[in-house]
Amino acid sequence: MEKAHDYKRLAQVEKDALGVRAAMVNDFKNHFDYCPVYYYMDSNLALIKKREFKGALMDTDGTQAKNIALNDTSTDYLVVYYGYPTAQARYKKVVTDPKKYEYNSGEPSGKGLIINNYKFQQVSFYYLFGYDHLFFKKGSKRFNNAYESKHYDIEYFPCAEKLNKELYEWPEKIRISRFIHDRQS
User: Fold this and answer.
1) Residue 141 lies in a domain
2) Mutual orientation of helices 160-169 and 7-31 as an angle, nearest 10°?
3) Whole domain around residue 46: which residue ranges?
4) pLDDT tens figures, 168-182
5) pTM summary value
6) How far apart, in Å, are the Cα atoms of 64 and each of 40, 49, 59?
């Protein structure tokens, strides 16, 4: 858009990205207390995959996270992002087949939180069907933690409360002590 000098659409994408970030951060700030949450911009994904957290992780307010309890040998954390999950049977604890990530033909029909282990292998997911957003009422708690672009495929619908509840009820399902969330740049 910048190369095409389409500044009007670029401004809309930037506005939508800010709306998604604000909705996601508010959702986790207001509905997730199971463990500390850090954020990263998707442009820092390579650093996160290499477990180079210093300088790449942010706090809720968007500032660089200080006193991070993670290092390059840490394995007790999850990396979560909002998008399309890979198909995963209920009895499977981790999707280990790399072809599933490349050729994801059996994915659920909807977006949501994709929950990955430190190896970026999907361990679980929560998603909404493509029409679930129709049930969000303006002014409701859920609506205030959601964002949907009117022009682009840019959205966030709240799932933090469900994840938080499940982690408390079934801690052996996904063992973690820290949480990292992609903020979508």
Assistant:
1) yes
2) 30
3) 7-182
4) 887 666 654 445 555
5) 0.75
6) 9, 18, 6
